[in-house]
Design brief:
- The chain is mainly alpha-helical.
- It has one domain (6-160).
- 82% of the residues lie in helices and 0% in strands.
- It has helices spanning 6-32, 37-69, 79-103, 108-131, 136-160.
């Protein structure tokens, strides 16, 4: 396999992780809530908490991957390509937890959204481990646990402010 570019790997991992975590947390929180003006407040609270956690998790996880990659020889990066990779990774990954909401009714849609997103987080870490010749299962668990925290927070906020 050709050398993996540090910036590209970071962009893809950050984009996928952040999208799965934020989107799922938001869907989970709103799915637990109700229809009213208070739902807007609920969505805002959920989004802030989930987004903050997601960004922290994404930065940590992508930096970990880059640290592993630094052990390999790598070519120079291209920020434009990196930006596009981040954008498309985020768009693609956001559809993973959103798809069940489009197809199934509540509560099945919420359960499937969470399952799909958590599975996606594990697969992201596993694939990263394979690409970097590190321990894929450990990488999958790491991203699942750290990224899954935002989903748990989203569900928790939804339960606390349930209408």
């Amino acid at each position: 396999m050709k050398t993996i570019r540090r910036e590209y790997l970071r962009s893809v991992i950050f984009g996928i992780e952040d999208s799965l975590v934020s989107t799922t947390g938001l869907i989970a929180g709103i799915g637990i809530g109700a229809d009213s003006r208070r739902v807007v407040l609920l969505a805002g609270i959920v989004a802030i908490i989930v987004e903050a956690t997601s960004m922290g998790a994404g930065e940590y996880l992508s930096d970990s991957a880059v640290a592993e990659l630094d052990k390999m020889k790598r070519p120079p990066e291209n920020p434009a390509i990196s930006g596009l990779l981040m954008c498309f990774s985020y768009l693609f990954a956001g559809m993973i937890p959103l798809a069940p909401v489009l197809v199934f009714v509540y509560p099945t849609s919420l359960i499937l959204s969470v399952i799909f997103a958590l599975t996606g987080l594990f697969l992201l870490g596993y694939i990263k481990g394979r690409l970097l010749h590190s321990r894929p299962f450990k990488g999958g668990l790491k991203i699942l646990v750290v990224g899954g925290l935002a989903t748990v927070l989203g569900l928790g906020v939804g339960f606390i402010f349930r209408l």
